[in-house]
């Protein structure tokens, strides 16, 4: 196409194992599979013309460390007694649809069994998720949400549900969740005014001590339910995006067998 151009980009792979700070043992095979999103999802345009994204070149930069023989020997001796353990924050995403005209949403068994340490919920147009050039799939509007609650075994967590009123600009608890849900006491690049204009993201810290530290918390089993209500009937079908982080462990034995404490 006449108006085509080349664009260069660089970034980190947002994968669970790459977010922990321990070096990987040698002689461990690793395969990385990346699935491209469709152009209709990742591109924005005011017309309905068909576009195509072509990858000209891609490189993966991996840091390698040469350790001293004494350190390698120490690792080998330690692996005779126990496995190498890697603490990861495993990410699980789920999507639910709320039909047009609905005033509420309730979903039981969002997670059944082990509970996540953090939960993030947001809403986006279903058509944007499916892909449409004129819609931004990362435009998280509030859709006049006036109630959002997370329940563990029937009890609200981490505190009572949020009650909001976007028409009267009463949504400070929702905005504050961006700080409390991530245990941040410094500014972020989303202002209170911008929050209601496409950045309505609701975060919940579900750890027992509410500190979101680097330590591991005791495993909590239960049934997680999400409830939401809207001040007005939805004008179109909306998708509920649920992003959860679980504390898990990946182990590597001396024979380089990889073990994990999660099923999926």
TrEMBL record:
<dbReference type="InterPro" id="IPR000358">
    <property type="entry name" value="RNR_small_fam"/>
</dbReference>
<protein>
    <submittedName>
        <fullName>Uncharacterized protein F54H12.2</fullName>
    </submittedName>
</protein>
<dbReference type="GO" id="GO:0009263">
    <property type="term" value="P:deoxyribonucleotide biosynthetic process"/>
</dbReference>
<dbReference type="GO" id="GO:0005829">
    <property type="term" value="C:cytosol"/>
</dbReference>
<dbReference type="GO" id="GO:0004748">
    <property type="term" value="F:ribonucleoside-diphosphate reductase activity, thioredoxin disulfide as acceptor"/>
</dbReference>
